[in-house]
Structures are given as structure tokens and as C-alpha cells.
């Protein structure tokens, strides 16, 4: 294996490299969004792509999200495979109608005649000390919309492969990226670019354990793993599952784990009301009714707008809140 | 299927009968305005009386329209009007859930539709049955949408005719993206260029998406014709509720041409759309066309226009009927005789009868269709839901309950 | 009590009368939307209001939902109490950004200095044999958004009072109306306009029973009640709860009921993934962990776009599907 | 609070250093264009060299601006620039999470801000610190947003200054609604009329909401001044990515006046905004003003403009500095002496020091704030969440862990 096949990459660099690979492999792949060209995006995730692929494949678009997604739909009809960047998750809402009414429904509307191979990349989540609208977790809204698929990556390997798999998919995919970890050195990982990747739409046990199961996705996976490490010191063994795909949910491994542990914590930064963690709890209580020794507990953001960032350490579920839930679960 | 009457009408006896419409002075004025000729800037090649008006700019675009071709356009209009009336009647008979009439807009649709070529693409809203017809879409396929057996079914690629779009205005951005793609594919720049036409109404011009379509198309020089059928009404709201200015002037703020054409003049619609398409093919797009026309029927079969507009208005517009003026022109100039007109009427009746037959015998869609084509690739969650539901249904069948 | 104090009203007429009362009581109340004036709305819910209150209090707006909601925000800042009509729920999405970013957050953003007494009326649900986008149930999306309150009425009495209470509230409220029942003669009810109404944000037991609890809202309440009647013939006693408010959820009566019956069916026309019924299941399994004798079951629309209306009888949960779930619950 | 550096910059050593910016020919052209004077149609009353240009249309609107008043405007601009630089520095020192500089836009903001009266209302975006100042908002209150202790805190009603808005363009519709309300309240029609000013950038003009604001304001004759600060850039995108035409011309498509003013000329901004407000007060609104100016600093403190624009461009614009030209004019015409300028500088330093003091000593917000004011009336669900969380926190406090 050549040395360059294995690279140590941050999550941000992994997505950048994945995008590059997809653009090399298929000249119908185009990248579009605000500032993605010359600047390489405000997070630099598209850095260098316009220089190498030109202005017709990396589009610095006018400033309007409905326009970005709406024109991507037309480009997809024409046979392109657009990858849209939404600058921050809080700015996806002007494009919501295009996502719900066109992106999600065109394949259904046309009985399969119009495919929608669109990827909408969304940096999401908190913890970057930002002003309003820059730290939200709106993924549940998209998971509720039939016709969309939703992915959230938690690490560089999945980021590298996931973005390519998403681009290859003929279905529209909301691709959520954990922005606070983009450039985290701690998350820099060896990515073997010759490996066979795991399938995109599968969840995965990322740390085995047997007393309590913790299911998480995106940036929360790291929190769950940190909690598992801490719990170990107290003699509690947490099994951590990375959902990876939020719609369609792949809960098989969760059911299996809960049948073993009898206890589940669902972890997410998003508000809890009518959310993905609600869905997980609803399905687990049904599938594992006789296995549960405690109710499914949820550790989430609160049902408030995202607070001023000076308060986000309280808002965001952290290791302590996970451990607290573990204790509650074990003490039920 | 429950009665679509419920959409808008209280059940009989549920309250006082709808009062007779009492249009306000504003409406009366609006009505009168609407019967004007669309202002000085209106491009017209055939008057309501069937007289040919010459235009040095646009005549070249219809130089090939001899009597035979004009008879063809006439026939197109008669056929789609007849089909429209048939569909309207079938809705009344409970065969369609709803119908969206095109009555009065035949010239705008046939003229612009016939201006397109094979490689061109159209993005319609929901009223463009006439355009569908010009693109070779069998109107039977359109019926499925309104009978509610499917959401659309034709082969959009083969016909160069995108699915209908019901959310007002958002197809305009999709069309813009498609036209950008034509450009990116190198299909723009000479006589062989490709272009796109997107249809929308006067009401739609208020939507943010239509504006964003203008911005994008201008910035990317997209080969896109924005074809706005100003039929004077967005359901009950006159165009004054959307704009102070004639709508074609909207283009001035973006830096591309806007033009108002007599939407009841098939020759003008054909010529102006051909011109606009030529501009686009050569890389001078986009172009906005406002086709000044009139919705002669209700908004849909669930609508009651007597609540908001004067019947006088309709009477005025009848004098500008898009079909009659062509008939007058052909008759007067010997371009067609009685036999021809009778034949067209017979063809139209047969055309409608065929539609009717088809509609009455359309099979019910199978329950599996609920689950089909949600995704291009499968979803285990949905597969499980389908299996569970189908076996639940089978349970009924087995129990003889269904 | 004067005779005119008690009126037999359909749901549609009840809302119409409630709107009229609010407009009479407070001249800052204005009604705005597409076709709400001269036409009285496509469902005639605002019938007669423009004639009586004038064009400045009943606005036939330009055709754009973001504009309707966005200008309503400004009018609210100015001290008006706007009641926006969205013509069909499927057309609310162009206004989604204004709802999420302004309507839901302005009070929080300004630490209470800017109030948002806006009501957004949304005819929702299926069963009217309509074309695409006219039969959806997007309420879960709004329940997930912190800062909004969400109400769904099921009957004429709640419709009459609820719309007035919603207008009186200083919080923004999404007011979902069961469109297929608007003009239903079967739902015509005596409304005592001198009564003291129940509080807006409370759920209510609408039929007592003791073997299985069924919780529903909006048009599904009727389905649940019909199922209860049918079940009675088979000797099964269903307790039916009308949620009435979808956010904040008032689940107290549901918990109480489940502690009695041990079984719960959550009913809704909406797709199930990450939805209100997920939330109900998640909270009930936690609160009533030791009382549940079967898992919470959900009877919902499928996770597909709304199908062509010829198929809606299969898509919409009906009496049979509720009874089937009751049997499954009892047989667990 | 984690480092806001993470927003945009890879960690040191994470990869090759950012390459030196290599602007394309297009950018060079854009840069040159931007240094032009804004075209023939630019309204200017004070040249970059400090010479007064006379205008029969606009001079009457600044007839009251004597030397004293002009010194006031000068002082305003110096103070807000000084505060802006202080805040920028405090961000670098970790005292603010981010800062959005107004450098270069002082004239546009002070001129337009001072044109408003007490009953008027402003709807800002996020860069209008200068306007905030003219509305009497203590800039300390603005700091809270960027220190991330709150999302906004001033009394919007008292100051006639709405909260900042970060979602691009959507405040424009809110402003439109407010202005409609002024009209509905009967506050429009004479010299005592009220009006509203909404601020947005060149990039924002592409958003659907801004268009819908234009449509609504036109249709309802709203007393609204659309004040677009065209600072030539939307982060890294030059104005050419948003429009073919000068932005003020957008108004032509809607039927209300649009005007381009030298955004670096405080007199012109004052005069033109006063004129536009007068139009609105009298019922002739809306009006679009494009203030042609330049963002002299980065988009925000997390941005690195060397990646996308030439430093030459900045150098050119420095010659058109909004403050220098007033200084030159005052000095040349004896409107102010050295003492005055020194005093203003001293005032500005004190102003900044005060801000700085305040910022460094700002208390941390209490955790309860997370839950406060989500609703005006209570929510039992949220109340329970708050109680649970606060008692959880208390648990830590009791255990001495927190
Ligand atoms: C986003 C959206 N809002 C509302 C509607 C409901 N609606 C259907 S047609 C219509 C009027 C459209 O008027 P116009 O654009 O002039 O087209 P026309 O029907 O006259 O052809 C409305 C309001 C819709 N389909 N989509
Ligand atoms: C809806 C939305 N999309 C994207 C962003 C991210 N963003 C913040 S400022 C900005 C550029 C705005 O440019 P312009 O309107 O010219 O205003 P300026 O910052 O130059 O004052 C962008 C893209 C946002 N805040 N809101
Ligand atoms: Mg119309
Ligand atoms: Mg700018």
C-alpha cells in the first residue's frame, strides 16, 4: 500500500479530500454555495476545489438558499450531481420549501422518472462560541420529511467515505457535518483511502460494553465515547453506538445492544420535543419492550432556542449529563 | 374519495347561500383595465378582429407560418379547448377530483409551446395542458393528476416537459438550474443552442423563488425564457395586488429584456417566444415574457368567480377570444373553408371522446403505489412499513372483509 | 340565556365566528392571507370579515407566504395581533424561515421585549380527494421548534374558543384546523358562546374507558371516537384523549390514563418518523414505565410523501387500523 | 467558550498555510470597478477631497447643517470608528466571540441614522453599530451580542431600533410589516408622518425575502426606506455575483424610486435619506437607496479577505475615506480647528475605554437565562425542564464539583 493511501486527516480535510475524489471520478459532480469557490467556504471545506476544477464546477452562488437548492434541483434534472453547501445550519430555512416540496418529492411525483442525486452539506451543532443561528441542530426536521435521507458523520473516516457515498447515491441526502470538530486535532485520524468503506446507511457499535447502551450521532459520538471512558473508571461499561444515518434509521444494532444491556440513553444536541431521540425511544420501547430494565432516557439540548454561546456549555449535553443519565438508568 | 366539494363549499343547508358577488369600485376598475388592450407596449400580430398587424421586429419569426401552419395552430387551440371543456365536465360528473381550466389561455400556451424545439425544455405550473399537448404529452397522462391516481406520469425527458408543479413559483428556480445546466453543457452559443421555458402566473411573480430565478438566470446568463401568463387573476386577487407596474417591467431591475405580448394572439405568442428562445440559444438570455391574457373560467372547478369579479369583464374578454380571431383571419383570407372548420370540430370531439373513454376506464391505482418510488435506492424502514401494511391488507382480504 | 348565545355550528363556522368575536373585541386584530378578503378564503373561513371590518383589517395579500408571515412579524412589533391564513398546509414552507428564525425567536432574542402575538392558521390533513400538497400533516415540524406553540382543534366548541384564546395569547401559535371536517354536518355542534371555555393548552379526556387509551388530535379525534364506539360493541372500552395542544404537550391526562389502562395507542395522520407520536411514546414509556402492559403503539400515516388521493383511504389511519392496534396492544 | 478561531481556520499545522491570494482577472476588474466613483448617477455632496458639490435637489435637505452640525456628524463618525476598532481589538484579545466591523461604512450609517426622527423605526442587519449609536443605543448593549452573553438587550421601542438580525434579508419583510402598520395607524400623509428604514447588504438583495419586501411595500404604499449598503462584498463574493445592474436600479421593476448615493459621503447620505423619509412620511413610499461604499476590514473577525481581494482595492478606497473628507472640508473652510479634532480624538478614546472597561467586566450570564423568555406565557414542559436542570446543577454545587 502506497504511503499516500493512508493519510492522517481532520474531519474537515477528510470531507475536502472526499469531495475532490468524487469530482475527479465524475465530471457531473458540481459544488455550489456561498463562498465555496475563491474562499473555499467559511470553514475551508471546499478549499482548492475551484482552483482545480474551475468556476463551472465550483460555483460561488448568489446569496439565497432557496436559489441554491432550487437551481440544484434543475441541475440534477439535467443530469448533474450537485453538492450544495449551506453555510451554517441556521441558514437552511429559506431553502426549506425547495427541500420539502421538490428535493424530497420529485422522485415520488414522477414515479421514479426524475432522480434527485443532490447532497446538501450542512455544518451543524454548537460549541464554537458563535452568535445566533450558527449552532443549531435541525436534523430532526429533515428526518421527519419522507423522501429525504439524512446522514450525520462523527469522524474522519466516515467523513471521507460518506461524502463520496452520498454523492454516488441517487437519492437526495442531507449530510450533516460536526462543525466544532472540523479542525480538531484530537479527531485527526488515519484514513486508508484504499479500504472498502462501511455502507453509508448503517449504524455501528463504536465501543462495546454491557451495562448501558448510549446511542449518538455527529458531534455527540465523541461526548458518548468520552463518557464511556469516564464510566469505565467507575466500573460501568457503556456500549456506544454511532447512528451514522438518521433517516432511514438503522436501529438493528441498537435493539440488539438493548437486548443485552436493558438500558438505553439517546444523546443529541437538538431539542428533544418531537425529535430523533423521541423516535429512537419510541421504536426501542416497542421492539425491546421485554428487555428494557429502565425507560429509554434522553440527554439532549433543551426545548429552547439555542442560547447565547456563553451558556452553551450548559445547553449542550456533556459527559457529566451523560453519566448522570447512566446513573439514573442504572438506578431505575 | 370524499367529495372535493368540501374544499370550498359548505354543505348544502349549512348556512346562508353565498351572496351575490358585489365587486368593489376597485374591482370594477380592475375589470375595465383588464379589458384594455394591455397598453401601448403590447406586441400584437393579429387583432381580435382577425386583422394581421405587421411588425418588422417579429414578422421574421413567423415567416414560415403559411396558411397550413396557421390552420395547424388553429386546430391545436380548438383541440386543447375541447379537451379542457371535457375535463371540466368530467370533474362535474365526479370523474376527476378537480380540474384546472385553461380556457382563454390557448393562444399563450399553443404559441409559446410551438415555439420550442426538440432539445428545449419546459417547466410548467399546473395549468399548462396546452403546452403539454405541444410537447407531445398525451393529455390522458395529465388526467391522472386530476383524477388523483398519480402525481404525474409522462416521460419528462422524452417530451422535454417537466412534471407539473403546484407550489406557486418554485419550479422557476428548478427551470433556472436546468437552463444553467444547458449552458454548462456547452449547448448555448449558436443556432443549434438549447433553451428552457418556464411558465408561471401573475400571482407567482410575488414569490421569492421567482425573484431568485431572475437573479440566478441573469448572473449565469442562463438560456431561460420566463413565460408569465398574466391571466389577470390569482384566484380572487387581481394583478394589482401583486404589482404597481405591468409585470414585464419587472425585468428592468435585473438587466434583461422584458416584453408584453398579447396572450390571446397565437401568432404574437409564437413569434415573441421564438425570438426570446433565439436570444437564449445564442447566449443572450434570460428573457421575460408577459403574456397578457385572461382566465375565462374559474380558477379551478372548486372556485366560484362570481364572488369576486364581474361577469362584464368576461364578456369583454370574449371579444378577444384567441381562437375566434384566427378563425376570422383564416376565413376572411381564404386560408380555410367551412369544411376545414367542421373537420377540426369533429377531430376535437373525437379527441375529447377518447379522453373521456380513457378517464372513465382508468384503473384504480394499487395500494403498493403509496410506497413506490419514495427513494431511488431502498429504505429498510419503509420496506418494513410496506410489508406490514400489505400483510395487514391481506388479512382483511383473507377475512373476506375487504 | 338568550337563544342566539347557543348556536349550532360546523367547525368552519365556529372559527369564522370566533375570528369575528376577536376582531370585534380588539381592533388590533387583523386577518391576512391569500384570498381571505373578497373571497372569504378558499374554505370560506374568513367569509364576511372584510365586508364588515374593511380592507385594512382583512388583507388580501400578495401571493407569497414568507411575505405574509414576515410582514405579520413587523405588524406584531407595531402592536397589531395578526392572524395569518396559510391556504393549505403544504404551502407553509416558503414561510418556514420567517417562522423559525423570527416568529419563534424574537421574544427570546429580545429577552421578552418584543412580543409575537401572531396566530398562523393552517388547514391541515387529508381526506378531501385533493392533488399534491393539499393533504399533509406537518405539525410535528413546528412542535420541534422551540418558541412556537402549536394547537390542533378537533371540534366546533374548541374551534370557536380556541381561535379567540390563540389570538389573545402573547405567544406565537400555529393553529391547525381539520380541513376535511370544516363543513361536515356530522360535526355541527351546539356552541354556547357564553360558557367559560377550557384553557387552550390542556388536553382532555373526551371519552372515558378502561382497557386501552387512544390519544389523538385534530381530525384523528373523530377517528378515535368512532373506533371507540366500534370497540364497545366488541366489549372493549377505549379511553380517548384529545391532545388539543401539540406544543407544549399536556400529557398529564395521558399518563393518568395509561396508569389505569396500561396500554396506549398514539394516533396521527402524519408520517411517524421523528414526530409527535414519537414524542408521546418517548415520554409515556418514561413516565409510565411500570404501568405499561404493552408498548405504546403508533397508528399513523406512512413515511412516504402524501400519496395520490385515490390511495388516501389506505394512507390515512382509519377505524380499522385503530382497532387492529387495539387488538395488538391487548394481545401483547 | 471554545475558540471562535475554529470557525474558519484549521488548527496551526493542520495543513499547508493558506496560500497567498491570487485574484483572478475578474477580481482585478471588480476591484477597479469598485474604486470608480459609482457611476454617473451617484449622488455626492462632498467629494473625497472635501469639496462641496451642490445639488438643487438635495441641498435643501441639509440646509440646517451648519458647521456645528457638521462637526457633530464628524464626531459621530470618529466615535463609532474608534469603538469599532476597539471592539475588533477586544475580539483579538478573546473578549468577544466575534466582531463585525463597520470600518468604512461610517458615513452611510451616521448619515442615514441621523436622518431619522423620534417616531421613526430602524430595522438593522448585524453591522449597523453606527446606526445603533445614532438611535441612542448604548454600544455597550451591542457588545453583549458579540460577547455571546445575550442575543440583544436594548429597548427597541424606546430607541426606535429593532434587534439585530443575522439571517440575511429576512428583517426586510419585518420592516415592511412595521411600515404597513405605521400606515394603518394613520401616521402617514403629512410632515408629521412616521417612516421606517431597513438596512441590508448587497448580498442580501438576492434573497427572496428582500424581493417580497419590495412587492409588499409597493403594493401597500408602505413608508419604508430600503437602505442597501453596497459595500462591494458579501463575504468573498463581489457584487457581480448578485446582479448585472447597479442595485439601485432594482427598484425600477417595482415602480418606486431607487437612487444611488455616495455611501462614503455623510452629507449625501443624510440628505438623500431625509428626502426618502420625507417621501415616505407623505405617503410616497417606498424608496430604495443604494449607498455605494466599501467594507474596509474583513467581513468579520473570522474572515481573511486576502484570500479573495486585492489590497490595491483597499488602498484605492482609503482615498475616499468617509471621515477624512469631512475633516478636510471642515479644516479648509475654518469649520473646525486642531483643538476640535484633538478633542474629538480624546472623546473617542474615552468612549472606547469606557466600552473596554465595560466589556472586560461584563458578568457571565446565569444558566437560568437559557430558559428565560422562550415564551411570554409559561410552558409547563419547559418549566419542568428548567427545574430539573437547575436542581441537577445544584447537585454539582452541593457536591462541590462546580
Ligand atoms: C406556495 C403556494 N401558495 C398558495 C397556493 C394556492 N394557490 C394555488 S393557485 C393560486 C393562485 C395562483 O395565481 P397565478 O400565479 O396568477 O396563476 P394562475 O392560477 O392564475 O394560473 C394559489 C394562491 C399554492 N399552490 N402554492
Ligand atoms: C440566510 C443566510 N445565509 C447565509 C448567511 C451567512 N452570511 C453572513 S453575512 C453574509 C454575507 C452578507 O453580505 P451582504 O448582504 O453584502 O452584507 P455585508 O456583510 O457585506 O454587510 C453571509 C453569506 C446568513 N447570515 N444568512
Ligand atoms: Mg393568474
Ligand atoms: Mg456586502
UniProtKB/TrEMBL annotation, chains A, C:
The keyword Coiled coil does not apply. It comes from the Bacteria. Residues 9-184 form the Transketolase-like pyrimidine-binding domain. SUPFAM superfamilies: Thiamin diphosphate-binding fold (THDP-binding), TK C-terminal domain-like. GO terms for molecular function: magnesium ion binding; oxidoreductase activity. Keywords: Oxidoreductase, Pyruvate, Thiamine pyrophosphate. Its cofactor is thiamine diphosphate. Pfam families: Transket_pyr, Transketolase_C. This is Pyruvate dehydrogenase E1 component beta subunit. It comes from Amycolatopsis xylanica.
Automatic annotation (TrEMBL), chains B, D:
The keyword Hydrolase does not apply. Residues 75-350 form the Dehydrogenase E1 component domain. One of its GO terms (molecular function) is magnesium ion binding. Gene3D superfamilies: 3.40.50.970. The keyword S-adenosyl-L-methionine does not apply. Residues 10-26 have a biased composition (Low complexity). InterPro entries: Alpha-ketoacid_DH_E1_comp, DH_E1, PdhA/BkdA, THDP-binding. Keywords: Oxidoreductase, Pyruvate, Thiamine pyrophosphate. It holds the Pfam family E1_dh. Residues 1-26 are annotated as: Disordered. GO terms for biological process: branched-chain amino acid catabolic process. It comes from the Bacteria. Its cofactor is thiamine diphosphate. Coiled coil: none annotated. This is Pyruvate dehydrogenase E1 component alpha subunit. The lineage of its organism: Bacteria, Bacillati, Actinomycetota, Actinomycetes, Pseudonocardiales.
Amino acid at each position: 500500500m502506497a504511503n499516500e493511501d493512508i493519510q492522517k486527516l481532520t474531519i474537515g480535510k477528510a470531507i475536502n479530500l472526499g469531495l475532490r475524489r468524487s469530482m475527479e471520478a465524475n465530471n457531473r459532480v458540481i459544488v455550489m454555495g456561498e463562498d465555496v469557490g475563491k474562499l473555499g467556504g467559511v470553514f475551508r471545506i471546499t478549499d482548492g476545489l475551484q482552483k482545480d476544477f474551475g468556476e463551472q464546477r465550483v460555483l460561488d452562488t448568489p446569496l439565497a438558499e432557496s436559489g441554491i437548492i432550487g437551481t440544484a434541483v434543475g441541475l440534477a434534472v439535467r443530469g448533474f450531481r450537485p453538492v450544495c453547501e449551506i453555510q451554517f445550519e441556521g441558514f437552511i430555512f429559506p431553502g426549506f420549501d425547495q427541500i420539502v416540496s421538490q428535493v424530497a418529492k420529485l422522485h415520488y411525483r414522477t414515479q421514479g422518472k426524475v432522480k434527485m442525486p443532490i447532497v446538501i452539506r450542512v455544518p451543524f451543532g454548537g460549541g464554537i462560541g458563535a452568535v445566533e443561528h450558527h449552532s443549531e441542530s435541525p436534523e430532526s426536521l429533515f428526518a421527519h420529511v419522507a423522501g429525504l435521507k439524512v446522514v450525520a458523520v462523527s469522524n474522519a473516516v466516515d467523513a471521507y467515505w460518506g461524502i463520496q457515498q452520498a454523492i454516488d447515491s441517487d437519492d437526495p441526502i442531507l449530510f450533516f457535518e460536526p462543525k466544532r470538530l472540523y479542525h480538531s486535532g484530537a479527531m485527526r485520524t488515519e484514513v486508508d483511502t484504499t479500504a472498502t468503506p462501511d455502507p453509508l446507511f448503517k449504524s455501528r457499535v463504536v465501543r462495546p460494553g454491557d451495562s448501558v447502551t448510549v446511542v449518538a450521532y455527529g458531534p455527540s459520538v465523541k461526548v458518548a465515547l468520552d463518557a464511556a471512558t469516564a464510566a469505565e473508571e467507575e466500573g460501568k461499561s457503556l456500549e456506544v453506538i454511532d447512528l451514522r444515518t438518521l433517516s432511514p434509521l438503522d436501529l438493528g444494532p441498537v435493539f440488539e445492544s438493548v437486548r443485552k444491556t436493558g438500558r438505553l440513553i439517546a444523546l443529541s444536541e437538538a431539542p428533544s420535543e418531537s425529535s430523533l431521540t423521541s423516535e429512537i425511544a419510541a421504536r426501542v420501547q416497542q421492539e425491546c419492550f421485554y428487555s428494557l430494565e429502565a425507560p429509554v432516557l434522553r440527554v439532549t439540548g433543551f426545548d429552547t432556542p439555542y442560547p447565547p454561546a456563553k451558556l452553551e456549555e450548559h445547553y449542550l449535553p456533556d459527559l457529566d449529563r451523560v453519566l448522570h443519565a447512566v446513573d439514573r438508568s442504572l438506578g431505575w | 374519495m370524499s367529495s372535493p366539494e368540501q374544499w370550498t363549499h359548505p354543505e348544502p343547508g349549512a348556512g346562508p347561500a353565498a351572496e351575490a358577488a358585489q365587486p368593489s369600485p376597485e374591482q370594477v376598475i380592475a375589470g375595465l383595465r383588464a379589458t384594455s388592450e394591455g397598453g401601448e407596449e403590447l406586441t400584437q400580430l393579429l387583432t381580435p378582429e382577425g386583422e394581421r398587424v405587421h411588425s418588422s421586429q417579429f414578422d421574421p419569426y413567423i415567416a414560415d407560418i403559411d396558411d397550413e401552419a396557421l390552420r395547424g395552430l388553429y386546430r391545436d387551440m380548438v383541440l386543447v379547448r375541447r379537451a379542457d371543456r371535457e375535463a371540466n365536465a368530467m370533474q362535474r360528473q365526479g370523474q376527476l377530483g378537480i380540474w384546472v381550466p385553461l380556457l382563454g389561455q390557448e393562444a399563450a400556451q399553443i404559441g409559446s409551446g410551438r415555439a420550442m424545439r426538440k432539445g428545449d425544455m419546459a417547466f410548467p405550473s399546473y395549468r399548462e395542458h396546452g403546452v403539454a399537448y405541444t410537447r407531445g404529452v398525451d393529455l390522458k397522462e395529465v388526467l391522472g393528476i386530476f383524477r388523483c391516481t398519480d402525481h404525474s406520469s409522462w416521460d419528462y425527458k422524452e417530451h422535454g416537459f417537466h412534471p407539473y408543479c403546484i407550489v406557486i413559483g418554485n419550479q422557476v428556480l428548478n427551470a433556472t438550474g436546468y437552463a444553467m445546466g444547458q449552458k454548462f453543457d456547452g449547448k448555448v452559443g449558436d443556432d443549434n443552442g438549447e433553451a428552457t421555458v418556464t411558465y408561471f402566473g401573475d400571482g407567482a411573480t410575488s414569490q421569492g423563488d421567482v425573484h431568485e430565478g431572475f437573479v440566478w438566470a441573469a448572473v449565469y446568463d442562463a438560456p431561460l425564457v420566463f413565460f408569465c401568463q398574466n391571466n389577470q387573476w390569482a384566484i380572487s386577487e387581481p394583478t394589482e395586488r401583486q404589482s404597481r407596474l405591468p409585470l414585464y417591467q419587472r425585468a428592468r431591475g435585473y438587466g434583461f429584456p422584458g416584453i408584453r405580448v398579447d396572450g390571446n394572439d397565437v401568432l404574437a405568442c409564437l413569434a415573441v417566444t421564438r425570438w426570446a428562445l433565439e436570444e437564449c440559444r445564442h447566449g443572450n438570455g434570460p428573457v421575460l415574457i408577459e403574456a397578457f391574457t385572461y382566465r375565462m373560467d374559474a380558477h379551478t372547478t372548486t372556485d366560484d368567480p362570481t364572488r369576486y369579479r364581474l361577469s362584464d369583464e368576461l364578456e369583454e374578454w370574449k371579444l378577444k377570444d384567441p381562437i375566434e380571431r384566427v378563425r376570422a383571419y383564416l376565413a376572411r383570407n381564404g386560408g380555410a373553408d367551412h369544411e376545414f372548420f367542421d373537420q377540426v370540430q369533429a377531430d376535437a370531439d373525437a379527441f375529447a371522446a377518447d379522453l373521456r373513454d380513457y378517464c372513465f376506464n382508468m384503473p384504480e391505482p394499487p395500494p403498493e403505489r403509496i410506497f413506490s418510488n419514495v427513494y431511488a435506492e431502498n429504505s429498510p424502514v419503509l420496506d418494513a412499513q410496506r410489508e406490514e401494511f400489505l400483510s395487514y391488507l391481506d388479512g382483511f382480504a383473507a377475512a373476506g372483509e375487504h
